[in-house]
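I'll show an entry:

:::
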Amino acid sequence: MVTTTTPGVATAPGGPAAHARARSRRAGGAVPTVVLVLGAIYTLFPVSWVVVAASKSRAELFSTSAFTPGSGLLSNLSDLFAYRDGVFWLWMLNTALYAGGGALLSTAVSTISGYALATYRFPGRDLIFNLLIGGILVPSVVLAIPQYLLFSAIGLAGTYWSVLLPSVLHPYSIYLARIYAKAAIPGSLLEAGRLDGASEWHLFRRVALPMMTPGMVTIFLFQFVAIWNNFLLPFIMLGDDHTFPLTVGLYTLLAAGANQPSLYNLIITGTMVSLIPLIALFLTMQRYWRTDLSSGAVKS
């Protein structure tokens, strides 16, 4: 029996079974997409409410529906920036100092510690790593009062250092740096560098750091956001409102005076303004997340 094919007609490889598998894969891929969209909506819902509420005057805030835009955004911004001779900008500067300085110091300490735990063998290494894991399980709320008593005993309570120093040593950041260094830096690459006569500092600076850049950026962003949003520690440590960060400063607007109503419109407007640096930071630094772990070593 001879089978013939019609010229010019192409048959699809795999036939109906292949089409069924392709449709199944597309259907399976739609589920994660739907979950991500729902998660994005859930996350952006309160942010969108803050943006809309910041456009309302004090009267409109309680007399209109939640997502009805108002006409008082410029007035709210003007009142916020003029409040107590512009103390909002001082709170913003303090927050940038706490978050930026603390995140940079924490990233440096975590990177060095994680690299050492991942690449060197020394007595007590596993014990130190297990203690770090245990430290991750301890809530920061439990440590706030002991930290205040400690800084009060050495005369640092109420100063910038009382908020900066506790944020430098972060167990989870060290744990993350150790995990990332172990996965990103091949031991054979370090051994080859040692055979070529490279010093340990040179290996760390020229080989390890470029390969750990995505992990360092992740640690920096996590710490920056955590310190930027931190309320309890500065609330306990600081007594002078000229050293307050935004979280504590905006909280004081809830009770602006004994005979004055809470300045809800200024609080919401200040919250909206405080989100702008975080969004800008993520948009700026996301390009440093690279999937190629060896790209840094090649550039070196």
